[in-house]
Amino acid sequence: MDELLSGGLPEGRLHVVSGPPGSGKTTFSSQFITEGARRGESVVYVTMHESKTELVTDMSGFDFGFEKAMRSKNTTFLDLTEESARQSLTKYGSAGGLRNRLPAMLSGLEADRAVIDSTMLLDHFVDEPQEALTDFITRLKGTDTTVILISEMTDPTAYSEEHYLAHGVIFFHNFLEGGGMKRAVQLIKMRGTPIDSDLKPIEFTDRGVELHPDETLEQRYG
Prior knowledge:
The chain has helices at about 25-40, 50-60, 65-70, 85-90, 100-110, 130-140, 160-165, 215-220; strands at about 15-20, 45, 75-80, 115, 145-150, 170-175, 180-190, 200-205, 210. By secondary structure, the chain is an alpha/beta fold.
């Protein structure tokens, strides 16, 4: 991905990672956070879907060091399925709800990188999640943090509000063809750097999601 992006995700910007279940979004995002922790950066992982134990277990099949990253003193993990974690956000920012407090927390921690999994978490905190999402993204973009916001969607042509507002959009694909599962990633947009928007093949390896930037799907799968 760094090669495809001419050095990596532009810093201090918000990038939406979308795709269907099992396409590699969480693994890719975990690799992103792990690399930040390895560099000694302040990193934050926020989830509404899995506990820290579950996520570490899921990533234990890879050797990119996610478990070690989660033990780093520079890593903050918020499992918003837990009441205690939800309450911990109340000490940051105003009483304007999660969409105010979470960006304030990132600024307060001077976070370099953050993963928020996913946009669906707003459904659990606000009465009008779509309206709140616009405000939430705007506030996230106002931080100095490089943010990956995971968005659950299965149709790459059905763009939603977060795709228009984000600085970058990465879509993970998986589809059955010719009797087997094919996986690919596509850069839909990336402000601040030139991109190749063609589908690029990916695979799950011991190192996580591995991208093949110089191959086409036809070259890899025939």
